[in-house]
Amino acid sequence: MKKTLRVMKFGGTSVGDATCIGRVAQIVKDVSRQGSVVTVVSAMRGVTNRLIEAAGRAEAGERDSFHANFADLREQHQAALARLIQDPQRRDQIGAYLEKIFDEGKRLCEGTALLRELTPRTLDLISSLGERLSAPLVAGALVELGVRSEPVEATELIVTDSCHGGADPLMDRTRKRAEARLRPLLDQGVVPVVTGFIGATEGGTLTTLGRGGSDYSATILGAVLDADEIIIWTDVDGVLTADPRLVPDARTIPEISYREASELAYFGAKVLHPKTLHAVAEAGIPVWIRNSFAPERIGTKITPKGRSNGGGVKALTAIRDVALITVGGPGIVGVPDVVGRTFATTAE
Ligand code: ADP
Ligand code: ASP
Ligand code: MG
Q1: How far is the CA of 291 from the centre of ligand 3 (A)?
Q2: Which residue lies with its CA nearest to atom 26 of ligand 1?
Q3: pLDDT for res 202
Q4: Which of 139, 172, 198, 262 is within CB 3.0–4.6 Å of 151 for a Cys-Cys bond?
Q5: Whose CA is nearest to atom 9 of ligand 2?
Q6: Which is nearest to 153 in space by CA: 100, 77, 90, 229?
Q7: Is the pLDDT of residue 148 over 90?
Q8: pLDDT at res. 339
């Protein structure tokens, strides 16, 4: 019988510090007893923002201040490493790998400071470092718990177009790469810990899927590996009836459709990257949103059709900094292509 395969993604708050990573490792260990697991991780909380800030400081030629960012990030990751990994040899090995990534980041920022130019391609390289730092920590924490695990960089798996800062996957090519790289690990009972947020073009240039894009990484991998389910572990109980930061008594929605969830995400519900469900639309794989801080709670199930609540409003979202453009005029009705031209002009 085919083993159940789950892709589980953990967001920045869920891997925010050593205690959180320990909790994540325990969840993965428990779930891996019931079948195969591919883990996808975000950067530790706040790290991507700090990296983007460092890139901006480099572009402005502020060498001291971007070096200060890297010093803080180094401290944050080395502290987590020291708390998570007891085995000295493994700790040194992971520590040396983290140092290599910090050196890479500093070199990229030095180059940017020299040129005083930050291209979208370089920004992707710098902002991707957070996931490349967190994946070895999470894999190391799993090994500490006796789970066989290995970090994998998604540049080896997710093939994208070259739209830096918001790339889209080429699914057929991604399927081939992911099968070739991940299936042998899964067959051997190894839990791959994949960097979220990142992909690479066919030619190997690193891209990112857009801010919050690790959710999308999880569904892309779930779709190409024909996963049975995808679980997005975050810091709230599921998709809620409103943003809990604005409405403290918002409630968890037990089941919601792909379309409803996409619409909420598109219109401001940060809990999901707006493209998350694109990748699974065809396969119809259920996507769960669950709380890594309260794994006993069931969460929200996102399914192709969802479940009716009898016709009432299911959820509200709010989105800031929106401009509303009204297009009108006496001669607009019946003018050929007026809608097409309006959209084209607005897009420009
Ligand atoms: P992660 O780091 O796990 O990807 P995010 O911060 O990206 O988490 O998304 C989770 C956050 O989304 C929650 O902490 C919550 O504040 C916010 N949020 C906004 N709207 C909603 C909603 N309708 N349901 C759930 N969470 C929401
Ligand atoms: N670390 C990336 C970000 O902060 C991606 C993610 O967290 O999903 O945007
Ligand atoms: Mg997110």
Answers
A1: 13
A2: 271
A3: 97
A4: 139
A5: 211
A6: 100
A7: yes
A8: 84
pLDDT digits (tens, 9 = 90+) for 240-270: 999 999 999 999 999 999 999 999 999 999 9
CA distance to 50, 125, 180, 210, per residue, from 73 (Å): 8, 16, 33, 21
For position 311, what pLDDT does the model report?
A: 84
Rounded to 10 degrees, the C-alpha dihedral 301/305/309/312 comes to 120
Nearest Cα residue to 154 out of 40, 232, 45 = 40
In the numeric block, the tokens 């604005």 are attached to: 246
Instruction: Write out the two tokens for 91.
Output: 């700790």
**Residue 91: what residue type?**
R
Secondary structure class of 276 (helix, strand, coil): helix
Distance 271 CA to ligand 2 centre (A): 12
Does 243 sit in the ligand 1 pocket, CB within 6 Å?
yes
pLDDT at 338: 86
The answer to whether the Cα torsion of 111, 116, 119, 124 is positive or negative is positive
Confidence of residue 332 (pLDDT cuts 50, 70, 90): confident
Residue pointed to by tokens 């999470």? 138
